[in-house]
Write a structure and sequence with these properties.
The chain is α/β, with parallel strands linked by helices and 349 residues long. Helix content is 42%, strand content 16%. It has helices at residues 11-22, 61-71, 85-90, 92-115, 119-124, 156-175, 197-206, 226-239, 256-270, 299-305, 313-326, 328-336, and strands at 2-6, 26-31, 51-55, 75-78, 126-132, 179-184, 186-188, 211-214, 220-225, 245-248, 253-255, 281-284. It is globular and about 65 Å long.
Length: 349
């Protein structure tokens, strides 16, 4: 397939780009190159003749329409989004524009393109919208999200993603656009921008700084390695039933504090300091609207498409720590672009 991937210079998007090229697909990477995007993330495939890059904003109607006309994709994977909760609290309208309006613009461009295709290509076309488990709100101590869980977003970020999800379903039901949706757990792995929890812990530890943790670190998240997520996304694109939603999780719900402690233990083994890294943990005031617990039941995806995650959490965290230790120059170049972990002062979970 020729796949138009939006947000392909971001963390999850770049993993999908790399995996799609490895699987033999052609890829058009549409990215606005906002602060967290980084073309270094796709440097390994940039010279491949099956790869093309388009610098554009998904909310720019003319630019997006021109990209569809130029490349005539067989499928769309929509990952472009503003995703950091702290930034959403600071500037919620930017999230509404990117996540809601951007999705609407992309849907309309995809619908116009799909409508112009010959019958066989129309039948094969897919619009895959990639979303988050945060649209479901918060869980108590028990239970897990699945495809039937009602939406109950609690933050500007999750509300904007919920709005985008509803638009995708509406375009499918109203116009017949062949859509499929996925809602995923927290991702981790190489190339994640260092404002998120795991790279924040690692990067600050490597700098000898304090390691901030919201509240008492009791919030629980389901953790999924980004490469496992990329594999699942491409599987859903190829074999998922149109009009359906699939929840993707790692089956590894852990309290944030436990994740931080595991990272500190791995850092003690891989990049030891004068004192144990866990001694640098600092509890900071919790952020507004911080959901207590997320967990995903991925039984539908396992049952229908045979997918299960391949990366055990302990091994994945260890390999992620080692990647950041071995790629400190990647982190340094991000700092040189103006990002410093003190900017927000807190961490996202």
């Amino acid at each position: 397939m020729k796949i138009l991937i939006t947000g392909g210079a971001g963390f999850i998007g770049s993993a999908v780009v790399r995996r799609a090229i490895a699987d033999g697909h052609e890829v058009v990477n549409l990215d606005a190159l906002t602060y967290s995007a980084n073309l270094e993330n796709v440097a390994s495939v940039a010279a491949d003749p099956r790869y093309a890059f388009e610098h554009a904003d998904v909310a720019d109607e003319a630019a997006v329409a021109a990209i569809f006309a130029r490349h005539k994709p067989d499928a769309v994977m929509h990952l472009a989004a503003e995703s950091h909760n702290d930034r959403a609290i600071e500037a919620p309208l930017a999230f509404v524009r990117a996540n809601v309006m951007g999705t609407a613009v992309l849907l309309e461009a995809a619908r116009a393109h799909w409508s112009s295709l010959p019958a066989a290509k129309r039948a094969a076309f897919r619009f895959h919208h990639v979303s988050t488990d945060e649209v479901f709100g918060a869980l108590g101590h028990d239970g897990a999200f699945d495809e039937a869980t009602p939406y109950d977003p609690n933050s500007p970020y999750s509300a904007s993603k919920a709005g985008a999800d509803h638009l995708v379903r509406a375009w499918g039901r109203t116009f017949g656009l062949p859509v499929v949706l996925t809602n995923c757990a927290n991702n981790y792995g190489p190339f994640q921008f260092p404002e998120k929890l795991i790279p924040t812990v690692i990067s600050r530890a490597l700098e000898g700084k304090s390691i901030p943790v919201y509240g008492q670190g009791l919030q629980v998240r389901d953790w999924l390695h980004v490469d496992d997520h990329a594999e699942a996304l491409l599987l859903v694109l190829a074999k998922g039933r149109t009009g359906e939603t699939y929840c993707i999780g790692g089956g590894t719900d852990r309290a944030n504090l436990e994740i931080v402690q595991r990272l500190c233990a791995a850092l003690d083994r891989i990049a030891p300091a004068n004192t144990a890294h866990a001694e640098k943990i600092e509890f900071v005031p919790d952020r507004p609207g911080h959901d207590f617990r997320y967990a995903i039941d991925a039984a539908k995806l396992r049952r229908e498409l045979g997918w299960t995650p391949a990366t055990p959490l302990e091994r994945g965290l260890e390999e992620t720590v080692r990647w950041y230790v071995d790629n400190r120059d990647w982190l340094q170049r991000i700092r040189e672009r103006g990002f410093h972990s003190e900017r927000l002062g807190l961490v996202k979970a």
